[in-house]
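Pilot study result, target chain (685 residues):
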Amino acid sequence: MASLFRLCLGALLVSGCPALTAADAVSKSDVIEEIRVSGNRLPVSAVGQAKTTLDVTHNASLRLDEQLKQVPGIGLFRRANSLTAHPTTQGLSARGVGANGAGRVLVTLDGVPLNNPFGGWVYWSSLNQRNIAQVDIFKGGSASAFGPQGLAGTVALSSTVPVENGGHLATEYGAFDSYSLSAGIDRVGQNGYLSLSGRHFDSDGPFLLSPEQRGPIDIRAASDVQSATARGGLQLSDATRVAGSVRYFDEQRVNGLSTANNSTESLEGSFRVLHQTPDKLNWELLGYYRSTDFANVFASARDGRTTERPVLDQFDVPGTGGGLLARVQLDGFEVGIEGRYGQGETNERFRNLGQGFTRQRIAGGEQRIVGVFADFHSEGEWGAFSISTRLDRYRTFNGQRRELDLADGAVLRQDGIANRSGSEFSGRAGLQYPLTAAVTLNAAAYRSWRLPTINEFYRPFRVVNDITEANPNLRPEALYGAELGVSASFGNGVRGKATYYRNRFDDGVGNITIGFGPGFFPLGGFVPTGGVLRQRANIDRIDIDGVELEGEFQLSDSSEVVVRYLYTDSRISRFAANPLLIGLRPVQTPQHSAFGSVRHSFPWGWLALQGRYSGSQFDDDLNQRKLSGVFTTNVAAGYELADKLTLSLAVENLFDREVVSAVSSTGLQTLAQQRFWRVGLELQF
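Predicted structure:
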């Protein structure tokens, strides 16, 4: 499949595609007017909700997940970015609710959820940033059309809509012998457009351990990615438009040991009908489907890191999912219905005592969520007010966990997992009230929820000698929150925001320590020396207080300074099953995080400088494995060699500060965000 992709990408570089209605092509200004009327989807009310919109055009980051760190508190499970982070840890979390691999932030592309239907994580390497027009980050619980999984917020990505015939060809080369090739073609007609794009990325990757800790078996974390996207839209009338997309993605990765590798192949499609007119009934219909095949091997280093042994071979982890959404808006009111379905399982071999795997496990199930929602918002000279309510009915069913002896096929374990169902309410009320012509008061209160993923219910995993068991009895998570803030915008190019929020997080899913190796545990089997056995469990309650500050300073038409800061005090306040954790901080949750940037445009190009700080945090539930705070610097520049031909340079972690993303019970430190430079050339036509 990868070779076929490269062949198609090469064809894209040397060929074009006909305009949809080439004989009737219209001017660029006419197309722009139509796009502004229709947009990618119906607007979503977010009165009183803290929101940040990012500029992703002039940035040093290779991928979008790293760009999102411009907003303090937004990040993956660990400090590693998607270049080296294991795919199952690439879910987003926010505002100190506690990180986990599935994430607690919903990520959408034109309203279509990108979170994996099996595990909740996001494949960031599948996204081509050149196709992203805008990134809106909504912080705090989201309800209504965003769906139930936006427990701590939503990242809403909007695709570019081409306005004239054109395309691009871009290539980059960088550290770790990394290179990429990207190409795209847009064709625009009077009634619609067609956009084709593809990207290939290959990197030897960095070592995950320092020279002092790695041994002869340690190799670089290599990756090989290819993706292709076809998008199109057709204007059926002045008010009605249809749009659709198909995205393909393939990734091969090595996670620091020759036998520790994983692969992903995904195909997804979506289709939307949008009817939008000023001051009349507007409606939207959206359908989408995704199929993903995943395979993964966990390995353990032995004998002073001179030998390695596969300890878990998840050779087939298929997952499928899809959904339907219908929304109707009129005079400030909105009603809608949404349904989501997900199915997945892990087929894996385990218990390798040195002579090969002796056991096989099949574990998985299905989920379904159906919700109805209603919104109302009103605005005037007095300000704006909104209220959203949503009721979801969920069901997890056909769950199984079966273990076999590979020698004779004997069934060693057959868990009868009962079907479960229930109802969950989410809602949000928001207020914006102008205190002066320049200062606005923002207030909101909300309840949001998240259903644990199929992965959390059924799939165990192992990292080095640390074993984490699944838990089919997990309860849905719930977040109760309130926030109060002020935003100011002055005529001299100065804008600022300050927000205080308080959250109560009930039944948050965490990886809770059961015991330490060496020893045998009925729950997880044998745990080797230096290993830890954990199980996913609901933490009764976590209390979170936070303060967000944000300032933007337009120094001139060509210069801008942005500063952001987040303080979050997050503590476990109730946990009847494990009182020893009360008062401790959730894993991977720093108290202080900050971001600052300076950008300047020149007649010949642009220059951007960024700084990021992440305070100390813990890599385990017992708060024994502490990760020190770290400050990193990024720089990027673009130089216009000729009309539509740009040379770019970017360096992440310019001073190569040591960033530790994980630490084992034996003190082994996994490194992340190592200095990564890139030089690129892009031609637009």
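One observation from the pilot: Residues 1-38 have pLDDT under 50 and may be disordered. A full batch analysis is planned for the follow-on phase.
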